[in-house]
Amino acid sequence: MNLVLQGPQADQARLEQIAAIARPAHITVLGPRAIRCEDVEHAHEIREAVQEAAFAAQVDATFIRAGRTLADFSLLAMDMDSTLITIECIDEIADMQGLKPQVAEITEAAMRGELDFSASLTRRVGLLKGLDVGALQRVYDERLRVSMGGEAMLEAVKAAGIRTLLVSGGFTFFTERLKARLGLDYTHANVLEAEGGCLTGRVVGGIVDADEKMRTVQRICAELGVPTSRAIVMGDGANDLKMMGVAGLSVAFRAKPVVRAQADVALNFCGLDGLLNVLA
To answer: Is the keyword Metal-binding in the record (predicted)?
Structure first.
């Protein structure tokens, strides 16, 4: 096993101090703030000690089988809200109605896995009834930002011949614009219903919940003629766990504890491009 240590504020001395816990046979410097520790000890107590020391130092620590690279994968599937982008779109839309605190509270509980996602989305969308659809464009223009390292990550995976999928429990208004802006191959999300220039408080068709996210990853892999073991899946909330569970590599980004605990890779401090060091 290898151990990749990286942190936006970490220096080599701090990284090597954490690395020493796993007693690596060799250390390769991947950049000014990232190292790969090769042939490390990875018993449970070693892993726990490394993760505890790394988290305290705001360093991301990833144990990964030696030799894994981007070439092992054919698809990168990403959640949108709070993963590829920094915001929860529905919370920001609700802010246009003066309802952000109420909606954000429901969103947070759903992402922690405490509420059924479909029911919570129906409830949240219902609160948007009557809002002018122009509010969606305002959210996109004024508040939506790609997460740190997102463009660099996408540039590298596309150069490696990996297809990209944005699959979201959010809305097509945003996924379609991001598809065009970032050159993504596939998107799948919920459709907000509108009549007379205003939101009706309903979605059109089925809701993209945890099961639908998983089915979408499986479907795109089937279209590509590859097993889901050749998919990297990134997410942050409980509704991402099922699609992450079928992936060859699951990545938790700024994720809820329940998601971090089950992911192969947890990027708590680095940007999305931290994935590139893990698979270097």
So the answer is: yes
